[in-house]
Amino acid sequence: MTPQEATAPRTGSTRTAEAVARRAAGHSLEGPFYTDPDFYDLDLAAVFARQWIFVAVDAELPEPGDRTTVDIGPYALLLVRDDQGDLRAFHNVCRHRGARLLDGDGGTTGNLVCGYHKWTYRTDGSLLHAPSQPDDFDRGRYGLKPVHVRSVGGLVFVCLAAQPPADFPEVAARIEPYLLPHGLRRAKVAARTDLVEEGNWKLVMENNRECYHCDGHPELLRTFFPTYGYTEENLPARLRPAHERRLRAEAEVHATYERLGLPYELIEELDDRVTGFRIQRAALDLAGESFTPDGRAACRRLLGDLPTPRLGHLALHLQPNSWFHVLGDHAITFSVLPLAPDRTLLRTTWLVHPQAEEGVDYDPGTLMSVWTATNAQDARLVARAQRGVAGPAYEPGPYAPSEYQVEAFCSWYIARLRSELHREEPHP
């Protein structure tokens, strides 16, 4: 059975189409983009039902029978490692009368059994048993509906569309060499948090794409250089000392990358392709090893076969819903999933070496402290922005030069909406 097209309704009123058409480059989006249910429905159809969406890590499903669930807007999905060890994704909907097949975030199962009428499916999605059906019942017609799924260097993506974006294999081939030295496929989940932010999903993504507001992140700025997004031409005088430290740290860490054969060059194609992305290895401040108060490693066992923790961080950003920080000692993944026009789930996962022992090799509090604080601070900023864009006095304002990645995100997003609104064939 081939993956089936997500059955999102055709959306986009004249009002939404006009707002998309008049979007002013270099300025924030108009208020309805963040508040209007019509735009929320359009976002689900044009973005989340058509793009590759980051939803999990391989470490959540290390063995055959391991499974987890995730919701993308109205779409309930389940991921499972089949009996041959391959990753599978299905709509989490029983083919009998539509009951939710599995609940909960994770677990292990031999077969997938519906808790309503006990229809039972193999881990490859085929229907194994349907109680009390007639003799001529054809089980082959009622397997679970599959969804495209792919692991890239230990990061798991799904795509609800019948035809996923054609450029994703190229993007995967370009970012995997950056990820593979860290051995994320063999890592283990040390912690995971779910934070519901009181704002539109785009505000969550936009907030992450700039450091204009980074003065509000004192824990993060112990090691993360506040010069992110700035150039020599637009660097404020107050950031000059940090800039000079960054140049010295980069010279040292680039020499390490060269010696170890680690790719580190910036690749930035955020808004000129369907699968927009940005990837780069960059230095950290202080000890330069990890996101901790002194910059030293939070886990004694290093990821993969890396010989030193002083590697700065590998930063990866993928449109539309994810960003990642991969370090010598651990990795952090961030997945943004829409819940409502003004509510968004931010799922953060910390990965460590598979043999790292909690309380021996790492302390969860130390491991999680910087990004737990930063996420909470960002959530307050996103809620504040949501309240503002919902008011009658709001009108789009101009981006600063250091916010160029916010502009790139909005430009990429508007292109997806335009493509959906001008799609010739009807959306099933």
TrEMBL record:
Residues 52-158 form the Rieske domain. Pfam families: Rieske, Ring_hydroxyl_A. Gene3D superfamilies: Naphthalene 1,2-dioxygenase Alpha Subunit, Chain A, domain 1, Rieske [2Fe-2S] iron-sulphur domain. Its cofactor is Fe cation. This is (Fe-S)-binding protein. SUPFAM superfamilies: Bet v1-like (SSF55961), ISP domain (SSF50022). One of its GO terms (molecular function) is iron ion binding. Keywords: 2Fe-2S, Iron, Iron-sulfur, Metal-binding, Oxidoreductase. It comes from Streptomyces cacaoi. It comes from the Bacteria.
